[in-house]
Amino acid sequence: VKVYCASLTHESNSFSPLPTDMASFRELFLCRPSAGEGVDILDQPLLECNLRMLSLERGWEVVDGLYAGANPSAPTVRRDYESLQADIVEPLRAAMPVDMVLLFLHGAQMAEGYDDCEGAILEAVRAVVGPDVTIGVELDLHCNITPAMIGNADIIIACKEYPHTDFLPRARELAGLCEAAAKGEIKPVMAFARTPMLGFFHTTREPMRSFVHSLFAEEKREGILSVSLAHGFPASDFEHVGAGVIVVTDGDAALAEATAQRLAEAFFSLREEIAAPGLSTEDALAEALAIGSGPVVIADASDNPGGGAAGDSTHFLRAMIDAGITDAAVGHLWDPAAYDLIERAGIGASIPLRIGGKSGPLAGDPVDAVIEVMCIRDDLRQLMFDEPVPLGPAASVRVGGIEIVITRVRNQTFGPQTFIDLGIDIPRKRIVVVKSAQHFHTQFAPLAAGIVYASPPGSVSTDFASYPYRRIQRPIWPLDTPPFSAFGQDWKA
Ligand SMILES: [Zn+2]
C-alpha cells in the first residue's frame, strides 16, 4: 500500500483580533518536507503525525506532504494559506500514483478568499487522484461540515470527546477503514445531516456523555462503519456554520442518510440540556466562593486561546482584586510586553506593571498594579492531552493575594503543572481561573473541589447573541427559537 499523508490544522475565528500567517504555523508546528523545513519533528509523537505513524506501523509506503498547525486565531492571510495548500497538493501530484490519501485537518479553517479551506483542499486533492483513490480525513469535532468536504472525501471521522482525548483511536479507525476500502473489501458511502445549532458541548457532562455512548452503539449496527458528531465551530462566520452528524455505511446510501437524520434530530432535542453553561464574572465568582473549599477551577471560556481568543482579558483579575479575594491564581495570561518587563526586573523584584487587556475592547482594560516577581522560566512544557508541548518563556507574579502566570507566547491552559512549576501552590488555592473552555478538564478535574464555567465578554463567548455575525444561515438555535424546520436547509446548495 502506498499512502500519502498530510495535515493542516487551524481553527479559524472570524472575530479573533489575532491575524494568522506563516509565522503563526512556524510558532506552533510547521514541517514542509518538500522545502526541507522542520523534518526533524516528524518522528515525535505529535497528533498531527498520528496517521503517518499508524501507516508506518502497518508497513505501508508513506509519502509525506505538509504537516502544519497553528493556534486558533483569525482566518489565514491568503498568500500563506495558498502556499500551505500547495504544500499538500503538489507533493501528492509528484507522488502519483498512490493507493490512499490520509489527511488530518481541523474542519473549521478559513482564509482570506476561502470560507471552507478543508473543502478547497479536498477538492484539489480529489482532482489530483481521481475518483478511485480512497481519501480519508480525520477532523476535530469543532468542525463545520460542507458539501465540498463530504463530496470529495470517502471517509470523514471526527473525534468524539471534548476534551479531545481520542484523536489516536479515531485515527486508527480511519486507517483501518481506508485500508479495507482501498482493497475493495468495503464500499464506503457517506451522508451528513445538518443540525441548526450553535454551541459548545462538553462530553464530560450528562446527557452528552450518554449521547456519545449512543454513537458508539450505532457503529455496532449492521452496515454502519462510522458515526461522527460534528459539534460545529460557532466563531466561523460563514453559511455552513453549525452542528451535524456524519454517517459512513458500507454501500448503503439510504441507511447513511436515515441514520444521520435520526441522530441529528436526537442531538437537536438535547440542545437546552447540553449547551455549555456560561456564567457572568460576578456569578461565577459567587458560585466558586459558595462551594466553600478549594481549589475551585473557573473556566474563562470566552478568553480561551484554544478558540482564537487572545488570552489576555482582565475581567476575572480585576473583579477578584476589587472583591479582595485572596488565595487565587490566574493563567496563562498572554502579555509579551509585560513578560519582557518582568524578565528585566528579575525574580524578587517589585515593580508597577500594566497587565493584560491589550488585544482589544473585549479583553477589558489593563490592570495596573505593583507586582512581586515570584518565578521566571523558559524551559517549561505542558501536557496537551498526552503530548508535551513547550510553553515558551513564562513568569509568575503576585498581586496582593492573587498569583498570575504571564506568558510571552499565547497558550491555552491544559493543566496545573505549569502553575506548580512556577511556584504557585494550586492545591491550596480557593480559586484558579484558567484560560480554557474545556481542555483543562482532563488534568484539573482530579484535584478540583468544583468546576465553574464562565463566559465574560470575549472572542469565544457562549453568548452567541453577542457575536457580530454577518453570514451564517438563519434560523439557527439559540439565536432563533424553534420550532422551525431547518434541517438540511440549503445545505446542498
Ligand atoms: Zn476542538
Give the bound compounds. Answer: zinc ion
Q: Kindly, what is the distance between the CA atoms of the first and last residues, rounded to a whole number of angstroms?
A: 36 Å
Tell how many strands the DSSP assignment holds: 19
Q: How many helices in DSSP terms?
A: 14
Characterization of the model:
The structure is a single chain. The relative contact order is 0.13. The chain has an 8-stranded mixed beta sheet with strand order 12-13-16-17-11-18-10-19, covered by helices on one side. Helices cover 28% and strands 24% of the residues. The protein is α/β, with parallel strands linked by helices and 493 residues long. The model has no long low-confidence stretch (mean pLDDT 96). The chain contains 14 helices and 19 strands. α2 (50-57) crosses α6 and α3 (78-95) packs parallel to α4 (117-129). The protein is globular, with a radius of gyration of 23 Å. The structure holds zinc ion. The site of zinc ion (ZN) has 4 residues, from loops.
What attributes does this structure have?
single chain; 493 residues; alpha/beta; 28% helix; globular; binds zinc ion
Question: What secondary-structure arrangement, pairings included, does this model have?
Answer:
Layout: E1 2-9, H1 22-28, E2 29-31, H2 50-57, E3 61-69, H3 78-95, E4 100-105, H4 117-129, E5 134-139, H5 147-152, E6 155-158, H6 167-182, E7 188-195, H7 208-219, E8 224-230, E9 243-250, H8 253-269, H9 271-274, H10 281-290, E10 296-300, H11 315-322, E11 328-334, H12 336-345, E12 350-355, E13 367-377, E14 381-384, E15 387-390, E16 394-399, E17 402-407, H13 417-421, E18 431-434, H14 441-444, E19 450-454
Parallel strand pairs: 1-3, 1-4, 4-5, 5-6, 10-18, 10-19, 11-17, 11-18
Antiparallel strand pairs: 2-3, 7-9, 8-9, 12-13, 13-16, 14-15, 16-17
Helix pairs in contact: 2-6, 3-4
This protein binds zinc ion (ZN).
